[in-house]
Amino acid sequence: MYLNDYNTYKYNSIDDIIDCDVVIYINCSNNNLTSLPENMNFPLLRNFYCGENKLVSLPENMDKSFPLLQGLYCDYNKLVSLPENMNFPNLHHFYCHNNKLVSLPENMDFPLLNHFYCSNNNLTTLPICIMDLRNLQYIEYNGNPIELSPQLTRFIQRINTGSVTKINVYGDTQNGHNTNIQISVRDSINRITCRRDIPKFVAET
């Protein structure tokens, strides 16, 4: 289901489209949406694209609305927070980059997540539930004032074992956040640059 037209009409609301038993794909990106319906019901939905809108929040019961969701793409909005309870047992891709997030929920449950993009927000840390993901293959969180922590140090050690194949983290040097994480991640990644799928990290000054 496509609810976007990059050249002409822009939706301000999709409140009339809340329930369908057969839809597996919704793309409502590149509109003027400021909110999403709270009572959506798409039991077979696999991918939901709502990027490039003006969303400031997501529905609290989104995981109940999309129980089989595999891809959630809410990048390029104005999100300042995410629902406290996000339980998506089938989610593989989660894109929330280029928003205004200051934190991520501690109790997100994405056991199959393998691609996570949260770059260009205002995050100072990553929740343990993300760093403990065992299927994670790619994480990108550059453009955040991330601070080094014991949990993040252990996460970097996982990178050294090769369980996380790609990582992109630079810290937000444009806003003066040139933290120790840059050097720590640089040293960790440079030790395994023999693997072709891991780009060499160069710390900014």
In short:
The protein has 205 residues and is α/β, with parallel strands linked by helices.
β-sheet strand percentage:
5-15%
Radius of gyration: 18 Å
Distance between the termini: 46 Å
Percent of residues in helical segments? 10-25%
Can you list the strand order of the major beta sheet? 1-2-3-4-5-6-7
Provide a count of the helices.
Answer: 4
Q: Which geometry do the CA atoms define?
A: globular
Largest sheet, described in full? 7 strands, parallel
- Helix and strand content put the structural class at alpha/beta
Mean of pLDDT:
79
What is the multimeric organization of the chains shown?
single chain
The number of E-state strands comes to: 7
Unreliable spans: 170-205
Write the H/E string, N to C.
EEHEEEHEHEH
Can you walk through the features of this model?
The protein is α/β, with parallel strands linked by helices. 15% of the residues lie in helices and 10% in strands. The protein has four helices and seven strands, in the order ββαβββαβαβα. A seven-stranded parallel sheet has the order 1-2-3-4-5-6-7, with no helix packed on it. Helix 3 links the parallel strand 6 and strand 7. The longest helix is centred in the C-terminal third of the chain and has 12 residues. It is globular, with a radius of gyration of 18 Å.
